[in-house]
Amino acid sequence: MLIAQITDTHIKLPGKLAYRKVDTAAMLGRCVEELLALDPQPDLVLLTGDLVDLGRPAEYEHLKSILAPIRQRIVAIPGNHDDRGAMREAFRDGGYLPAGAGFLQFAIDDYPLRLVGLDTLVPGQGGGELCTERLAWLDRTLAAKPEAPTLVLMHHPPFVTGIGHMDRIGLKGRDGFAAIMARHAQVELILCGHLHRTIRAQVGDRPALTCPSPAHQVALDIDPEAPSCFRMEPPGFMLHWWNGGGLVSHTAVIGDYDGPYPFFDADGKLID
Asked: How far lies 50's CA from each of 129, 184, 240, in Å?
């Protein structure tokens, strides 16, 4: 099973730039082109939060128009820039988001890997939270199928990164989350967004991984006083390959680059 992960797309209304600089719609369009050119094609596409920039219904409609060429199932979780009501309406046809006005949390059992999506959104705040209610739901959901290899999806990473300004708006409830992870060995990987770059850590003896954005990246500055900045580094997305016995993750860089060039000539000799 091959899974594509796209995160932090930050789509605005048509014609608007994020931070007056980043054409997030055009950059997501380029990401979609890269995804459609993959061979083999992913079986599933995950969106791990900050789908739009201001949580407006019209922004979700713009997002959906850009994603329309993708024929695979799309599964999305909210980030701090999202709005639960508008997102629930935009993705109502997906069949996995719960109805009502509660948290956008779910479990999907349709694939070789079980998908458990978490809602870390705190309306009006950049940071996230896993409160007692959300943590209890997660513990119950994982306990229901202890033998099923599982991906946990969440926007805010459940670890400290060293990038000061992002850690200051991090995730409340990290310790409770780590304790739950330690009890559920079937969790193969915790997939996150929010950091706009690839970062790996261990949480409760389970691996956690953040994904780059198809647009701007958070500046890499390992300093507790790091200013809040982004860079126009090469954009990307991730591919996660489940081979039946383990999960392998790849970062895919978006853009036109030279190659591919062969390592060996027609006679099988290394080209020197």
From this structure: 15, 27, 20
pTM: 0.96
Q: Answer for the pair 218, 230: CB distance below 8 angstroms, yes or no.
A: yes
* Residue ranges of domains in the chain, CATH in brackets: 2-253 (3.60.21.10)
Q: Token digits for 74? A: 């799309």
pLDDT of residue 226: 85
pLDDT by residue (tens digit) across 229-245? 999 999 999 999 999 98
For 158, the token pair is: 């459940």
* Residue 65 · residue 28 · CB < 8 Å: no
The residue type of 244 is G
> What spatial distance separates the first Cα and last Cα of the chain, rounded to whole Å?
37
Q: Are 114 and 151 in contact (CB under 8 A)?
A: yes
Cα gap 128→49, rounded to integer Å: 12
